[in-house]
């Protein structure tokens, strides 16, 4: 008989965090209703990412789901709740074999991608970019909200890419479980107020 795997709760909102963000705001973001954080920083090495993860976990780890992007080994060493893997990262199936208890997300851009991610053992699909985003170089053309509807029903979809509060509401109506955001929190004059607006949008 296989071991029962209990993954952490999947948030409605993932706030992406890098070493350039104001970590002191993280507890306030949790108070505002943000229940997930993804650590993504392409400009630092794995050791620095591990240090960042420990900081974030110390601030919110008992009240929010913390996922490490790209680096399974960092997630395992720090006790993070999960890992999110891009299409050029460690294959999802290998990550699932190595870490049966972690929440695992996979970057997907089509229904076929989502179906394969499920076969490989992912818990959710990071789906996008839904709209235009300048947060990451080399992103493909936006998929649009209709693509969410076309890909729903296989795995929970976390819509990402240029999503503000109205976009988050549209993504939920289209069938997304939730959203992942960067600029709609961190680039706002009041990040905590912006977070509250997003939380209201995905209810």
From TrEMBL:
Keywords: Magnesium, Metal-binding, Thiamine biosynthesis, Transferase. Signal peptide: none annotated. 4-amino-2-methyl-5-(diphosphooxymethyl)pyrimidine binds at residues 38-42, 69, 107, 136. InterPro entries: Aldolase_TIM, ThiamineP_synth_sf, ThiamineP_synth_TenI, TMP_synthase. It catalyses: 2-(2-carboxy-4-methylthiazol-5-yl)ethyl phosphate + 4-amino-2-methyl-5-(diphosphooxymethyl)pyrimidine + 2 H(+) = thiamine phosphate + CO2 + diphosphate; 2-[(2R,5Z)-2-carboxy-4-methylthiazol-5(2H)-ylidene]ethyl phosphate + 4-amino-2-methyl-5-(diphosphooxymethyl)pyrimidine + 2 H(+) = thiamine phosphate + CO2 + diphosphate; 4-methyl-5-(2-phosphooxyethyl)-thiazole + 4-amino-2-methyl-5-(diphosphooxymethyl)pyrimidine + H(+) = thiamine phosphate + diphosphate. Mg(2+) binds at residues 70, 89. Its cofactor is Mg(2+). Condenses 4-methyl-5-(beta-hydroxyethyl)thiazole monophosphate (THZ-P) and 2-methyl-4-amino-5-hydroxymethyl pyrimidine pyrophosphate (HMP-PP) to form thiamine monophosphate (TMP). This is Thiamine-phosphate synthase. It comes from Nocardioides dubius.
């Amino acid at each position: 008989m296989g071991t029962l795997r209990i993954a952490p709760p999947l948030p409605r909102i993932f706030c992406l965090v890098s070493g350039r963000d104001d970590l002191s705001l993280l507890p306030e973001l949790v108070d505002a209703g943000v229940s997930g954080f993804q650590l993504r920083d392409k400009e630092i090495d794995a050791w620095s990412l591990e240090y960042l993860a420990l900081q974030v976990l110390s601030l919110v780890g008992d009240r929010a789901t913390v996922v490490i992007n790209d680096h399974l080994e960092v997630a395992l060493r720090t006790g993070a709740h999960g890992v999110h893997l891009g299409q050029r990262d460690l294959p999802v199936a290998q990550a699932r074999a190595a870490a049966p208890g972690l929440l695992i997300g996979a970057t997907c851009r089509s229904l076929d991608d989502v179906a394969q991610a499920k076969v490989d053992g992912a818990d959710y699909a990071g789906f996008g970019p839904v709209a235009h985003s300048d947060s990451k170089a080399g992103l493909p053309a936006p998929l649009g909200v209709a693509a969410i509807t076309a890909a729903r029903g296989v795995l929970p979809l976390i819509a990402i890419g240029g999503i503000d509060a109205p976009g988050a509401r549209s993504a939920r109506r289209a069938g997304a479980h939730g959203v992942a955001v960067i600029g709609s929190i961190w680039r706002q004059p009041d990040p905590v107020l912006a977070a509250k607006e997003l939380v209201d949008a995905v209810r």
